[in-house]
Amino acid sequence: MTSPKNVKARKMETATRSWTAKPILSSDFTEAPPLQEVYVGVLKQRKDTSTAIKSISTILPGFAHLKRCSNGKLLLAPLHSDELSREKGHDISLGENQLKTQLKERGFDLSLLEEKFQMTKVPAKAPRTKIQASEASKIWPVNFHPDQTVESLIDGSIFNDDCLYAIERIMSLVIKVARLEAVGDERCTGATAIVDPEDGRILAVAAAKIDRHPMWHAAMLAVDLIARLHGGGAWKLNDEECKETKEQTDAIEEDKFGDESTDPNVTTEDQILKRLRRIKRRYEEETPLCYPKSLASLKFPVQTSLETQVVRKGRRNNGAKIENSRQKECEDNAKKCGPYLCTVLMEPCPLCAMALLHSRVARIFYGTANQSVGVLGSKTILHSVPGLNHRYRVWSGILERECRQIVEEIDARRSRS
Amino acid sequence: MDTSAWMDVALQKAEESLKAGEVPVGCLFIYNNQVIATGNNTVNETCNATRHAEINCIDQVLKFYVIVTVEPCIMCMSALLQLQIRSIVYGCANDRFGGCISVLEVPKFYDSKIMIQGNIKGEKAMRLLQDFYKGVNPNAPESKVKKGRNTKGTSSTHTENK
C-alpha cells in the first residue's frame, strides 16, 4: 500500500532526476519463487482444523514458510522429498498409499481427511520480498515478515534525495575523469572514485590506463591509491612527481620502520592508534589521491554524507555503538577499502569486481552495463555467488545515459588512435 | 651482469639476424638479472613486417605457463586471462574464491582456450594453507563472535590510551 504522500514524493523524484538507482540483487530476491508438488488432505469438517494442524506438524514437520492449512486443505508432504531421494540415491516420488501408511503409523487420524488426497503446487521456498510474498500467497498463504533493509533497497527508500544528489555529483566527476583520461578496452574501461560515506570525502579518483600497464583498470588503480593512503601501495604511480612521491615514500618508510622495530607480528593498541591518526591526517591533507595526477585540477563536488540508515524498530542502533564498531572496523580494514563506497563508470569486469570484493568495499554504484564481461549484473551477479566471504551492495543506472555516451566516446577515441 | 655485458649478448643476437639476411637487431628481456626472452628481427623469415626483435621477445614472455599451488581467485584468473596466458597448473582447489571452476568459471567470459589442470600435489598445498590458518595470521580480522563481545572493552582501553 502506498500512501498518497509517497506517490507524490516519487513523482517529484522522476521529475527532477533522469535516472534511478537500480539495486542489483540476487535472483533469490527478484525471481518468482519456485514451486513444489505436494499432497494435501481435504478436511471433512472445518472444526477439526486446529487438531489436524497440531497433529501433522508434530508428525511431519516442515513447510515453515507456509500456512499449514488453507481453506480446509491441509498440507501433508512434498511429492519429492529430499530425504527420500538422498536415501535411495535418486529422485523418487512418494506414493499416496505410502504416505497414508506413514501417517497412520505415526498416529495421524486419517479419518479427519477425505479419502482421496489431492496434489497441488505450493511455493517451495520462503519468499524474501513483499512482491514475492504477494505472488506466493496467490498460490498458497505464506508466513512472511518483510526485511526492512531488503524492502528499502527494492523501493529505493534507502536513499533520500540528498543522498541521491551526492551520488549523482560523484558520478558526474567520474564521467569527467573518464572523458579526460580513460584508456581501456572493450571489456573494461572508465573511471572510479572511492568515497568515505561518513563525510562524503572523495578519497581516490582514477582513470583506466591499460596503455601503461595491463592491470591498470580504474578500480585496480583506485584500490592501490587507497593502499597508499594507508601507508602502502604497490605501484609507482605518478612518477612524474618524483620528488614529492619520494618525500612521501620516505616518510612512510620511516613510519613503517618505527612500527616494525618491535615484533612485527604484534600490533599494540598504541601502534594501531598511531596508525589511525596518521591515516586520518592523510585523509585531511592528501585526499583526493588522483591517478593520473592531472585529475587533481578538476573541480571536486562538495562533501555530503552518504550514510543511509534503515529505520529499525526499537532503536537498536545508538550512536555510540556505531562509533565503536567503526573504529574497530577501521583497524580491521587498515589494509582494505573499509566501509567505503565505490563509484564506477561501467559495470566492473571480473578483475575489478573481485579486486573490490577483496578490498571489502561496502557499496558499488555503476553507470552503464558491461555486456561483454560485466559480473555485477550482466554475465553473472558476483555478489550473490555462494561461498564468497564478503558481499557488497550494488546499484546500476547512475546517470546511465551520460555514462553510456562517454563509454562510446572512449571507444571511438581508441579506434581513432 | 651489467648493461654493457647484456648489450654484448644482444649484439650477438643482432649478428645472427645479419647472417640470416634480416635487419640486424637483437633484443633481450631481463628480469632479476636473468634473461627471460631473446629475440631478433625475423621480418623476412616470416614475411611479416611487424616481426621486430622486441615483438618476438613479447611473444616469448607471453608464452608462459603458470604454476600455482592454489587455484587462482576470480580476480587473478581474470588478470591472467587478459594477459592471454596459455596454461595454468594448480595444486588444490580454492573453495572460497576460485576463478577456474570452484566459485566462478571466469574463462567462459573471455572465450579463452586456456588449458587448466588442477590437483597437482594438491594435498601438500592444502596442508600449507591449513598450517597457516591454524597459526596466528597477524592480519586476520578478529572473529565476529569475539568482536561483538569485546567491543565495549576494547574501545574503553582506547580512550584510556588517548
Automatic annotation (TrEMBL), chain A:
It comes from Mycetomoellerius zeteki. Belongs to the cytidine and deoxycytidylate deaminase family. ADAT3 subfamily. It comes from the Eukaryota. GO terms for molecular function: metal ion binding; tRNA-specific adenosine-34 deaminase activity. InterPro entries: Cytidine_deaminase-like. GO terms for cellular component: cytoplasm; nucleus. The lineage of its organism: Eukaryota, Metazoa, Ecdysozoa, Arthropoda, Hexapoda. Transmembrane segments: none annotated. This is tRNA-specific adenosine deaminase-like protein 3. Keywords: tRNA processing. The keyword tRNA processing applies. One of its GO terms (biological process) is tRNA wobble adenosine to inosine editing. Gene3D superfamilies: Cytidine Deaminase, domain 2.
From TrEMBL, chain B:
Residues 151-162 have a biased composition (Polar residues). It holds the Pfam family dCMP_cyt_deam_1. Gene3D superfamilies: Cytidine Deaminase, domain 2. Keywords: Hydrolase. InterPro entries: CMP_dCMP_dom, Cytidine_deaminase-like. One of its GO terms (biological process) is tRNA wobble adenosine to inosine editing. Residues 1-102 form the CMP/dCMP-type deaminase domain. SUPFAM superfamilies: Cytidine deaminase-like. GO terms for molecular function: metal ion binding; tRNA-specific adenosine-34 deaminase activity. CDD domains: nucleoside_deaminase. Residues 139-162 are annotated as: Disordered. GO terms for cellular component: cytoplasm; nucleus. PANTHER family: CYTOSINE DEAMINASE FAMILY MEMBER, TRNA-SPECIFIC ADENOSINE DEAMINASE 2. This is tRNA-specific adenosine deaminase 2. It comes from Mycetomoellerius zeteki.
